[in-house]
Structure prediction request, 478 residues.
Amino acid sequence: MDPQRLRAIRPALVPIAELERIEETAGAILAEIGLAVDDPDVRAKVTGAGFKENSAGRIIVERKAYREFLASERKSHGDRFKEGPQPGAPPGASIKCGVSNYPLTIHEMKTDKLVPFTTEKHAEAVKLLDGLSSRGVVAASPGYPADVPAEFSPVLAYWNQATYSRDGRDAPDPKFGKSTPWVMEMAEALGRPIKGLPIYPASPLTLFGESLDKVLILKDRLDSAYIANMPSPGSTAPVNLGDALAQAAAEVIGAAIIVRELTGLKVTWSFCIFPTDLRDLSMVFGSPENFLFHLISAEALCFLHGDRWYPGAGNIHTMAKLPGAQACAEKASIMTAGALLGEQYFGSVGALSLDEVFSAEQLVYDLEIRDHVQKMVDGKQVSTDQKRCLEEIRQGIAQGSFAGLDSTVALYKGLYWHPAVFERAFLGGWRTKGEKTARQNARELIVESLKKHSFHLPDSEQKAIDGIRERAKKALLK
Prediction:
């Protein structure tokens, strides 16, 4: 008999009537306000494809095209929104974790300082992630080297992760137009060709930038494009949440309609609103608002897609700059709530200050939190057998303890979770073991994981990406 998985059931946070108003409002935004397309060449392509400009020079998407687009989206997803949330995870399903590949800064354990992510430190971090792959870390690169020119950095990051990680074949974000062809060539050499690239409209309602230019230039090498944005209520979007969601939807849907017409590619799209603290002029991750914004964004997004919504959220970013209390509290809070609601994947382990900093120490804490949460949501199987119970009690009384019984030896490890870093002993026991702190335990675990690194890429593939790296260096470091 499987144990009963611990699960929190939540109702939808946004009423259907409100979602319908968001849909209508997004259509009105596209028809009446439109998207700014600042690049003259791109704007000429857009108008040449049949899109009209309004009196303000913005590109509009007529309501008919908007409605037809959403009808097609809903049909392709089976128009399943009315069926409610996605089903929960089955008993025993493991929680996976991934890292952000955007940090340019690393927390240096020896000095407890934040320093630039050098090529050497990046390679060491990749090796650590490879060593921790058995603990459910499914990402390879924790950022980009910051000691080389920016346009070469994605190529070098990819080379590091492919060279030192068994999970390193999938390409990181190429980021820049000049680095993208080299990253694409390396991906082909590793058997993971890049067939889709992201486009990021700027809020409010602006379609421009290098991500769009890359797709337009490379469209013949692609099968798809993915469009996403990050508007913030009260900062780059209206402060009322429904209005902010309407703008967020208009930005990506309008961009999707235009890009599909310009390129002929399959276009997917997503949106999510994010909180901003106007006192610090920064987006605030790790906050209760951020968690709730993810939940309501998922409902609005899936309503417009015609798909079933996700009840949980897996974003465990934090604005803490160093590993420790704030980061652990915020990440544990969000991971616990997300897992109870059915989420099975949590990104940004080891990331601090949103995704500016990678910390190996925080990574270890985050995995400890994940294991804690995993054991909690897995639940327990409860069974009673009268004959067995009476016999074991008699044996326990006779021996003065149940610790030495055969049943305890056989079942103890499955019943209890033992942390690798956090401390559980009484004060006396802790002193006897050397009074080690969680931080000392984490650092010892990191050192041991690095010692065990042994991955090597097959020689033919290593030679291929070595050559690509050297040619990219010559081309990009002129």
